[in-house]
Amino acid sequence: MTLPSPRVLITTDDFNLADEVAALRAGDKRVGAVCTFTGTVRDRNDGLSVSSMELEHYPGMTEKAIEGMIDEAMSRFDIFGARVIHRVGLLQPLDQVVMVAVISAHRGESFKACEFLMDYLKTQAPFWKKEETPEGARWVDARVSDDAALAKWGISASNA
Questions:
Q1: Which of 10-19, 59-68, 147-156 shows the lowest mean pLDDT across its residues?
Q2: Do the Cβ atoms of 89 and 8 come closer than 8 Å?
Q3: Which is the most buried residue in 25, 93, 109, 159, by most CB within 10 A?
Q4: What's the rounded Cα separation, in Å, for the pair 157 and 149?
Q5: pTM confidence score
Q6: ∠ CA 148-140-44 to the nearest 5 degrees?
Q7: d(CA 112, CA 106)
């Protein structure tokens, strides 16, 4: 018997979406819906080209924060499970950065829970992002729009 994958993985390694979804839903005949989101590194941000992005985090603290986010999603939505993978380290344009996958009986709950988790991750997960641009390296701050996205779920954030 294979052990289920952990709900949260912070890694420097790339991930395979198909493998992760298969592991999340493995043998669960209740699953009628799988919703996923995969974020990738763009080559532009705020009007400047981006040649690379570096993500940092606090090991242990980051996983605990994201586990709490998944617990919150499990209590808010009728879902069976969720998995979040977030990469750290030096990444290039086109590289995968984050994956959120949610399983449920019906699509509506999976869609809502997946969006909730991404909105939560953008504002509350303890990651620090630095982009390399033609003008030099710059740290990327949270945006007012990210706080607004979280506010629609009734959660107040003031990161921007």
A1: 147-156
A2: no
A3: 109
A4: 10
A5: 0.90
A6: 95
A7: 11
